[in-house]
Amino acid sequence: MVKHIAQTNSLVNCWISELRNVEVQEDRMRFRRNMERIGEVIAYEISKGLQYETEEITTPLGVYNAKKLSTQPVIATIFRAGFPLFNGMMNFFDKADSAFVAAYRKHKQDGSFFINQQYVTCPDLEGRPLIIADPMLATGSSLLLALDELLVFGKPSEVHIVVVIACTEGVAAVKSKFPDFNIWAADIDDELTAKAYIVPGLGDAGDLSFGNKLQI
User: Fold this and answer.
1) Which domain covers residue 86, as residue numbers?
2) Does the residue 154 lie in any domain?
3) Minimal CB count within 10 Å: which of 35, 140, 164, 194?
4) For residue 111, is it within any domain?
């Protein structure tokens, strides 16, 4: 399943517009908050399809048959750009466990790059929903590498990939390798630059959230 959120009019469209706007991007806190809010909305949408069970609880005036998640999900993200989106997911899945992947594009002098993945930490995934938050899905290379590493920790009951801006090429790459995984994209663009940046996209989500970086 690929869910394109922006195809339905909602406040998410307004937040996407602000994320893309070069003038609004100068407000770093607003950029992070818009990422976080999109994470919250998609977390709510994902929660509708998870498995629940009934739990009897006592209120001040009686007994109530409440609903609770049968299994808490694991929320994963990729350092560092994914943190605001991840925080939004955790605001809603507040009892979830977390997984983290440290990966980034290592650029060569000729303009090409490879994915440098240095660190993965994850709880047992066996039989649990896995939700991975990564704001930009361009070629899909870093996400696919992260998924390969995470799936070593067990077979999830279901997998949800949450992105803010996806490219059709990256979506196709993920669906080709993992056809049963669900992709939730706030918006989807059709073009990549020669350096694999999404057009019109929004730029470098990590730098816009946390400041420019140097690669040594």
Assistant:
1) 2-47+76-210
2) yes
3) 194
4) yes
144, with CB counted inside 10 A (0-12, 13-18, 19+), is middle
Number of domains forming the structure of the chain:
1
CA–CA distance, 95 with 61 (Å, rounded to integer): 27
Whether the per-residue pLDDT at 160 is higher than 80: the answer is: yes
| Inside any domain, residue 119 | yes
Question: Do residues 82 and 39 touch, judged by C-beta distance below 8 A?
Answer: no
Phi/psi at 95 (5° precision): -105, 5
Residue 208 has pLDDT above 70, yes or no: yes
Q: How far, in whole angstroms, is CA 55 from its chain's centroid? A: 30
Q: Kindly report the pTM of this predicted structure.
A: 0.91
Question: What is the residue whose two structure tokens read 């299994």?
Answer: 71
Mean pLDDT of 66-71: 97
Residue at 172 is within a domain: yes
